[in-house]
Structure formats: C-alpha cells, structure tokens
Amino acid sequence: MNSLANTGTLGNPLVSEDVKTPTEISPASPNDELWTTPQAAKYLHVSLKTVFNLRKKGLPYVQLGGAVRFIPQEIKDYLVTNRGLSAHRLRQVVRKGAVR
Question: Measured between alpha carbons, how far is 3 from 9 in angstroms, rounded to an integer?
Fold first, then answer.
C-alpha cells in the first residue's frame, strides 16, 4: 500500500527532489532585467517627467501591453550615441583647439 506522504493529491501535491523552481532552471542575470520608468529615472538621475520627454526624443523602450519597460543596455547605448556637449562646454573645447 502507498503511504499518504508519498502520494500527491489536489490539496497536497507531490513534491519531488527533482522538481526545480524557475530560478534554479535559469537564474536571471542583472542583464536580463527590464527596468520600469522609475528605475530608469533613478539610473539616469532625472525625474519621471524627464524620462517621458526623453522617450519622445528617442530613448529606446519596450511596450508590453500597457506597461513600458526599458532594456538597461539600450539605455547605456543611447547615452553613448546621443551624448552631446552643452553649448558652454563645446565653446571651451573649440577654444582649446580640440574640435575643428
């Protein structure tokens, strides 16, 4: 006869040593995460409104249903490719002869 401890029922499913939780199967690395708008704002050290304005100007994002998420590497790439010098800093660089 089977003991009650070894059989699974709807109320008490069988738990096996071989069953793995999702984190054991493939742990999520920090690069796999998607950021929310507040997380992106915190990373960029700007307000939520600034993140919304940056989205209009081309900050890459992913829309999942109604949720907006950001891929961290895409934000970093965006910062590198769209890095602009302020007008004051640009004048300083030009005066020193670095940019012609």
Answer: 12
pTM: 0.55
Q: Please report, for the chain, the start and end positions of each structural domain, with discontinuous segments joined by +.
A: 30-83
Find out if CATH 1.10.10 is the number for domain 30-83. Answer: yes
| Strands in 1-100 per DSSP E | 62-64, 67-69
Q: In the numeric block, which tokens belong to residue 83?
A: 């890095």
DSSP code of residue 10:
S
* Alpha-carbon span 18 to 28, nearest angstrom: 20
pLDDT tens-digit series, residues 43-66: 999 999 999 999 999 999 999 999
How many residues are recorded in the chain? 100
* Cα gap 50→87, rounded to integer Å: 20
